[in-house]
Hints:
Blueprint: H1 7-15, E1 21-22, H2 33-37, H3 42-49, H4 62-69, E2 80-83, H5 85-96, E3 102-107, H6 112-120, E4 123-128, E5 130-131, E6 136-137, H7 140-146, E7 151-157, H8 169-181, E8 185-189, H9 206-209, E9 213-218, E10 231-235, H10 240-248, H11 257-268, H12 270-294, E11 299-300, E12 309-310, E13 313-314, H13 320-331, E14 333-334, E15 336-337, E16 348-351, H14 357-381
Parallel strand pairs: 1-14, 3-4, 3-7, 7-8, 8-9
Antiparallel strand pairs: 2-10, 5-6, 9-10, 11-13, 12-16, 15-16
Helix pairs in contact: 3-11, 4-11, 5-6, 5-10, 12-14
Amino acid sequence: MSISPFKLERFFAKYEFSAKYLLSSSDIESLGMDELLKMGSPETLALWKSLRLGYTESQGNPQLRNEIAKGYENIRPEHVMIAAPEEAIFVAMHTLLEPGDHVIALSPTYQSLYEIARSIGCSLSSWDLQPGENRWTIDLDKLEDCITDRTRLLVINFPNNPTGFLPSRQEFDSILTIADKHGLRIFSDEMYRQLEPEPSLRLPSVSDLYSRGISLSGLSKSYALPGLRIGWLTTREYGLIERCITFKDYTTICNSAPSEILAIIAVQNTARIVARNLEIIRANTIIAKQFFDQHSDRLAWIPPRAGSIAFPRWLGPEPLAEFANELIEKQGIMIVPGNIFDYPGNHFRLGLGRINLNEALERVDEYLLDTSNKRLASSQDI
C-alpha cells in the first residue's frame, strides 16, 4: 500500500515533545491515573486489581461495550467494536471501500478520514467549510453537486476538527436526507461529541439516526484520556461490525486489557469527566476571545460552536509560515498552520483544552508586541 505522509502527525512528531507550549493541541488537559481510579466503583476497581494480562476479545470487552451502548438510543453492545481511534478509521475505510469508489469528505478535517480512501484507490471530492461572518458555514447544494454515480461514502466530522464547526439540527437532518436519497453510507467522526457548550446543541449520533451510518467515538478528546488509545465504531448495519472485526485480525487483533478496564471507569463517569473538560474549554474560550480582540489587526477570531479547538486566521503582513516558525524558534510555541490540513489561506488551529493556554498566549503577546515595536522603529528610521 502506498500512502502519503500524515502531515499533522509528522508535524507533531517534530515539535510535540520539544516545544514548551503546544498552542494547537486538540485534546483536553489529560486526566491522571490517580484521578481516574478515584472515580472507579468498588466493582470496577475489583476488576482492575484482579486483572490478568492475557489476550482480550477482538470486538472489545463485553462490559465496556455494554457501557458504551448506554450512551446511544438505538445501539446495542453487539453494534460496538473497540479499537484505537486511528485504527478504527483504517479498518472501517478498508472494510467499506473498493478501488474506483468515489468518496466525499468534509474539509478541513483529520487527514486519515480521506487519505486512507485515496490510498485504497478511491477518487475524492472535498465538501469545503467556508468562513462566514463570525462563523463557519456549509453549503448543502455543493454537497449535492459532489455526488456521482460512483459515490459510495460521505465522511463528516462534527464538532469539526479543526474549525469547531457544528451544524444546526436542521442542517444535520438535511445531510442525512441527501445521503439517504442517493443511497450513501456516512462515516461520522464524533470524537469531539459531548464537548458542546450547551447540551441543546448536541447532535444525535449518526449511527443512532441513519441505518447506513457508521460513527467513530473514543476517549482521546471528550474524555481527556488519549493515552489509553481506546475508541469505538458503532453501526446498526447488519454484518458490518463482523466484517470490521475480521479485518482487525490483521491490525491489533485485540485491545489492551488495562486500557479497557480503565475505559469502563471513564465511560461510567462520562458526565463528571465531560463537565470537567467543558469547564476548562469555557474558561479558555473567554481568554482566547479577549486575546484576539486585543490583536484584531493581526488575528481574526472565528469562534467555535463546539469542541475543543478553533481555526482563527492570521492577518499579519508576513506569511503565516514565518509567523509559525518565529513562534517556535523564539518563544517555544507550536501552532499548526492550516496547510497541514490541506486548507488554503492563513488559518491555524488553536487548542482550547490545555490549562496553560493563558501562559502561552502571554508569550505570543510578547512576540507580537516586540515585532510591532521593531516595525515602528524601522519606519521611523526611514
